[in-house]
Amino acid sequence: MLTKYFTKVVVRFNPFGKEAKCARLLLSAIPPAQRISGVTIQNELLTAESTKKPIVKITFKDKTEMEADPSTLNFKELGNHFDRHSRKLSLKESIESQ
After folding, report:
1. What's this model's pTM, rounded to 2 decimal places?
2. Mapping DSSP to helix (H, G, I), strand (E, B) and coil, where does residue 89 land?
3. May I ask which residue range the UniProt record assigns to the signal sequence (predicted)?
4. Longest Cα pair distance anywhere in the chain, in angstroms?
5. Cβ neighbours of residue 24 under 8 Å, at least 6 residues apart?
6. 19-44 burial string, b = 16+ CB within 10 Å, else e?
7. Which has the closest alpha carbon to 13: 91, 78, 63?
8. C-alpha pair distances (Å), 71 with each of 13, 14, 15, 18, 48
9. E strand or H helix at 8, and its extent?
10. In angstroms, rounded to a whole number, what is the distance separating the alpha carbons of residues 11 and 34?
11. What is the DSSP letter of 73?
């Protein structure tokens, strides 16, 4: 997953729900150096009685926000969902640098 263009990551999930694996894998995919140098990570654990829905919300460097439901997607599908925009930013960056 291309995490280079992330500026903010919001993850909300039930640690005992089916969405926990996907959400935890997403959080672990962000390199430690990137966590220190500028990505803001907000993590909220939900209880079984909570009425809030699980969510993964990413804000990119160009201020675009994308969100997905980790209970309906597996990690690969979630990665592909966010990589679409990251690849656009990567292409834009490579064109501007030439």
Report:
1. 0.90
2. helix
3. none
4. 53
5. none
6. bbebbbbbeebeeeeeeeeebeeeee
7. 78
8. 9, 10, 12, 6, 14
9. strand 6-13
10. 17
11. S
Name the strand (E) or helix (H) holding 36. helix 32-37
d(CA 94, CA 57): 25
pLDDT digit string, tens, across residues 65-86: 999 999 999 999 999 999 999 9
d(Cα 96, Cα 43) in Å, to the nearest integer? 34
Bridge-based pairing of strands 65-68 and 6-13 is unpaired
The two structure tokens encoding residue 25: 């894998």
Contact 62, 89 (CB under 8 A): yes
Residue 3, classed as helix, strand or coil, is coil
Domains in the chain: ranges and CATH: 6-97 (3.40.30.10)
Question: Amino acid identity of 56?
Answer: V
Q: Is 66 helix (H, G, I), strand (E, B) or coil?
A: strand
Greater pLDDT, 34 or 65:
65
